[in-house]
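To fix ideas, we quote verbatim one protein's residues and fold tokens.
>
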Amino acid sequence: MARARIITPDFWLDEELAKTSERTRLIYIGLWNFADCNGIIENNTEKIRVQIFPYQKIDIKKNLDELIKLKKIIPYMIEKKDYFWIKNFRKYQKLKNPYYKYPIPPSSILQQYPTDTPPEPKEREKEREKEREKEREKEEKLKFNKLYPLKGRENNENLSKLSKNDFKSKMGK
């Protein structure tokens, strides 16, 4: 799933990237859009080309190789399937509703880049639980608003006097 991503000012000041072609830099940014929230994307040159340049028949293999050489993307294989891990992805991207589609790199690779290690499955589950809790809170607020609709400022005072226990008793909990 494509996602909107942030381009920080550090990107434009990266001396290594400045030495690459404009196409390589554009591909690098494009990878961010199609990577999961750990900065992982399938290592499939044709699929990447179609995602980033859907209307152009160009060869991007050389550009990907250049990013690998600069260690901006780290190739790895799990269960006979190839992936790229975008180094420092989580450092620069703010993740509101994280989703994880691909397996994280093996520990031998992660140990080489300890400052940008994706969360372990337990940490992923904690993030998901936080999101589920936020959703439950939203649902409770919606139920509360249905039980106590606002009709004017005078109702705000009455609503603020209700305790959480009052609300739960009204909700039947």
Notes: The chain has a mean pLDDT of 79. The longest strand covers residues 73-78.
